[in-house]
Write a structure and sequence with these properties.
By secondary structure, the protein is α/β, with parallel strands linked by helices. It has one domain (3-194, 224-251): Carbamate kinase. 34% of the residues lie in helices and 26% in strands. The protein contains nine helices and 16 strands. Helix 2 (40-49) packs across helix 3 (70-94). The structure holds adenosine-5'-diphosphate. Adenosine-5'-diphosphate (ADP) is lined by residues 9-11, 14, 38, 40, 174, 193-195, 198-199, 202, 223-228.
Length: 277
C-alpha cells in the first residue's frame, strides 16, 4: 500500500475533475491518496467579475505570486474552497470515492508563516508590500489526514493555510503539496499541470527534461520561468523531505495519473548528493 499525493493545477484549461475516475480506482485498490488542487484561473475570473481584478507580484528573483489583500482572500476562498473544491469532491463521490474537501485552514492542517513584507518589482523599482495575506507552509499536521486516510477516505486539500495564531494565508499549492507529501512519508508526488513536463524551452513542448537528479538540478532550475519555478522548488523540497519520486506531468490528457506514474513527464529522484545539498 503506497501513499500518493497528487496536485492538480488550477490554470486555464485544466479541469481537476478529470482525474476523479483514476483516483477512485487507486483508492478502491487500497492506495492512500491525497488530492491537492489549485484554483487560480477560477479566482482570476471571479475577481474580474466582482470588480477586484488579480494583481501579480514579481519578486526580484523572478518568482510571481498573487497580491492577496483581504478582499482578494475572500474571493480566493470562494473559488478555491467553494467552487473548485466542491466540484472535485462531487466528481470523486460520483465515482464512489469517499472524498472529504478541506482547506489547509481546516483543522490547522497546513500551519505556516505570514510574510511580514514582500519585495516586489514595479516599473523597474523594488518596493515593499506589508499588508499581504500570503506566506508559506512550515508544518503539516498529519493527525487528521492519517485518520481520514486510515478510514479509506480521500482528503481533497486546497489553500489557504493558517498561521499558528489563526490568520488564513494564501500559500503556493505546489509547495504545500510537497510539504504534505514529505510529512506523510509519501512514496510519490505528482504535480499535474497544463504543460507536459518541465521543458528546456518553455515554448517547445517537445523539449522535455526527462530526469532530474543531483547532477541536473541546476539545469532544471534555470529552465523554469515564472510559476514553474515554484514547481521545481516544490519537487526539490519533497525529495529533500524524503519523498522517493516526484513527477511534473500533464493534467490535460487521458489517464493523466497513470501516464505520470509511468514517467511521462519530468521525474525527480532522490540521490545522496541531493539530500546533502
Ligand atoms: P498550475 O496552475 O497548473 O499549477 P502554473 O501555471 O503555476 O501551473 O505553472 C505552469 C506554467 O509554467 C506553464 O503553463 C508555463 O507557462 C510555465 N513555464 C515556465 N517555464 C516553464 C518550463 N521550463 N517548462 C514548462 N512550463 C514552464
Amino acid at each position: 500500500m503506497s501513499t500518493i499525493i497528487i496536485k492538480i493545477g488550477g490554470g486555464k484549461g485544466i479541469d481537476p475533475t478529470r482525474v476523479a475516475g483514476e483516483i477512485a480506482s487507486l483508492v478502491a485498490s487500497g492506495e492512500r491518496v491525497v488530492l491537492v488542487h489549485g484554483g487560480s484561473h477560477e479566482t482570476n475570473e471571479l475577481a474580474e467579475a466582482l470588480g477586484h481584478p488579480t494583481q501579480t507580484i514579481t519578486s526580484p528573483s523572478g518568482h510571481t505570486s498573487r497580491r492577496t489583500d483581504r478582499r482578494t482572500l475572500d474571493i480566493f476562498n470562494m473559488a478555491y474552497c467553494g467552487r473548485v473544491n466542491k466540484a472535485v469532491v462531487e466528481s470523486l463521490r460520483r465515482r464512489g470515492a469517499d472524498a472529504v474537501g478541506l482547506s489547509g485552514l481546516d483543522a490547522g492542517i497546513w500551519i505556516g508563516t505570514r510574510k511580514s513584507a514582500i519585495r516586489a518589482v514595479e516599473d523597474g523599482r523594488t518596493v515593499l508590500i506589508r499588508d499581504d495575506l500570503s506566506g508559506k507552509v512550515d508544518r503539516v499536521d498529519t493527525d487528521f489526514l492519517n485518520t481520514l486516510l486510515g478510514s479509506g477516505r480521500v482528503p481533497v486539500l486546497t489553500p489557504p493555510a493558517v498561521t499558528p495564531d489563526g490568520i488564513a494565508i494564501n500559500v503556493d499549492a505546489d509547495r504545500a503539496a510537497a510539504a504534505t507529501a514529505a510529512a506523510l512519508g509519501a512514496d510519490e508526488l505528482l504535480l499535474l499541470s497544463n504543460v507536459p513536463a518541465l521543458l528546456r524551452d518553455p515554448s517547445d513542448p517537445d523539449s522535455r527534461i526527462e530526469q532530474v537528479n543531483a547532477s541536473t538540478i541546476e539545469a532544471a532550475r534555470s529552465a523554469a520561468r515564472g510559476r514553474m519555478k515554484n514547481k521545481v522548488l516544490a519537487a526539490e523540497e519533497a525529495i529533500v523531505g524524503g519523498v522517493t519520486r516526484v513527477v511534473i506531468a500533464s493534467a490535460a490528457r487521458e489517464h493523466a495519473i497513470a501516464a505520470a506514474r509511468a514517467g511521462e513527464g519530468t521525474v525527480f529522484t532522490s540521490t545522496r548528493a541531493e539530500v546533502n545539498a
